[in-house]
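Task: sequence design from structure.
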């Protein structure tokens, strides 16, 4: 009797030991990003380890999603299945200043064996305070889609296919953001010159920036205009800002020394928007041709809601000319994509040389490859121009060396962002 009980006891102890051993063998240890880590790159790589003896038939599925509440797996989406390695780099980028969750499931012969703990991390915040808005690839009609009598002969309608996702700055680049660039570069002269080219016209009576005591700073009478759009920046100054921001962000530079785009459209560094990207963004990142949202201005048809222009740009505290001037970025209503000031405040440099539209469908256009003799495209109207130039299809051009009190810029970069709603198994 004792012997029988002893044998039964050993049997159950053996079963328990096997079970415990199985638990140890089947443990997945997430390595990167660590749980509750912060300032993780948007270009994330997931890494994990498997504790125990190896199994030749083991595969891994990785689940990922935005953290919408306290640590919960309700928003997880399968982004890759059947992995044999213990590392995975997604084809998409993440948004800055977001919280995400991830988890690894281990399978053998199609059956789940175990899963890792649920991991949480936060991505880096917007670099230098430049907030970016995601614009998904799409096809739209560019030009004078409203057949507006104010439209120029250079606004011929044509279809444009942007085959890549990109992000564009929510606001025009501000004084404080440009000052950071000027003071961080280390190679810009006190006159705002770099590599023999004028970046900003420091000597202009309208310039709001000066060089004092070995530092660029806002003029005393301009204190308080930190978040106003920077003005008097040349096209060269705008692209040097882009290259600098790319470098400090760990991205590839978008321009060579002669202002030629590098590896377009695949380069993921910061740059000026192409004219097509600019207009698509101004239209809210949608094809609004023959729809109720085919607005005159970026965001709507009521110019007062969306635009600082000649009629309403009075600024007695910070006048530039005859009591009028620029206004703080983002103080007018945003368009459908949550982008501000694409109509009015300051004209904005685009990448393209100016040229006539071909009137035929275009894919990822960048304008003429060489100078047309007229200049680089500028868009959007400004505080000192009338409503005509604030229209989303209105086109102008300036010499790339030009600098005016009504001229600034915003930036873009190509990306492929994680979209919870439509992410597919890669």
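Answer:
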């Amino acid at each position: 009797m004792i012997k029988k009980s002893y044998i039964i006891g050993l049997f159950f102890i053996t079963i328990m030991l096997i079970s415990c051993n199985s638990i140890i063998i089947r443990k997945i240890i997430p390595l990167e990003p660590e749980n509750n880590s912060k300032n993780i790159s948007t270009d994330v790589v997931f890494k994990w380890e498997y504790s125990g003896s190896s199994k030749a038939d083991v595969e891994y599925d990785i689940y990922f999603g935005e953290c919408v509440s306290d640590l919960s797996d309700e928003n997880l989406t399968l982004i890759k299945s059947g992995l044999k390695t213990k590392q995975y780099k997604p084809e998409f980028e993440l948004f800055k200043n977001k919280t995400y969750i991830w988890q690894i499931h281990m399978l053998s012969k199609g059956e789940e064996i175990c899963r890792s703990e649920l991991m949480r991390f936060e991505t880096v915040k917007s670099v230098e305070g430049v907030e970016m808005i995601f614009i998904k690839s799409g096809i739209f009609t560019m030009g004078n889609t409203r057949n507006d009598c104010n439209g120029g002969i250079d606004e011929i309608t044509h279809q444009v296919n942007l085959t890549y996702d990109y992000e564009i700055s929510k606001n025009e680049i501000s004084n404080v953001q440009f000052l950071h660039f000027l003071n961080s570069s280390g190679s810009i002269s006190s006159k705002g010159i770099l590599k023999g080219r004028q970046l900003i016209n420091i000597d202009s009576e309208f310039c709001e920036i000066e060089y004092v005591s070995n530092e660029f700073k806002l003029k005393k009478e301009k204190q308080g205009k930190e978040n106003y759009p920077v003005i008097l920046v040349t096209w060269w100054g705008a692209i040097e800002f882009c290259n600098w921001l790319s470098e400090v962000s760990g991205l590839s530079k978008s321009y060579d020394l002669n202002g030629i785009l590098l590896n377009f459209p695949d380069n993921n560094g910061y740059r000026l928007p192409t004219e097509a990207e600019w207009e698509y963004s101004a239209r809210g990142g949608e094809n609004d041709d023959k729809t109720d949202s085919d607005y005159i201005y970026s965001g709507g048809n009521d110019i007062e809601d969306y635009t600082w222009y000649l009629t309403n740009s009075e600024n007695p505290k910070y006048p530039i000319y005859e009591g009028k001037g620029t206004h703080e970025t983002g103080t007018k209503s945003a368009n459908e994509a949550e982008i501000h000031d694409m109509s009015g405040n300051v004209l904005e440099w685009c990448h393209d040389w100016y040229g006539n539209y071909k009137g035929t469908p275009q894919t990822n256009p960048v304008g003429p490859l060489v100078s047309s003799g007229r200049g680089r495209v500028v868009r959007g109207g400004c505080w000192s121009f009338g409503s005509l130039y604030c229209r989303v299809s209105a086109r102008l051009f300036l010499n790339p060396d030009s600098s005016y009190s009504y001229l600034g810029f915003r930036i873009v970069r190509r990306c492929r962002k994680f979209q919870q709603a439509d992410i597919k198994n890669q």
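The chain has five helices and 23 strands.
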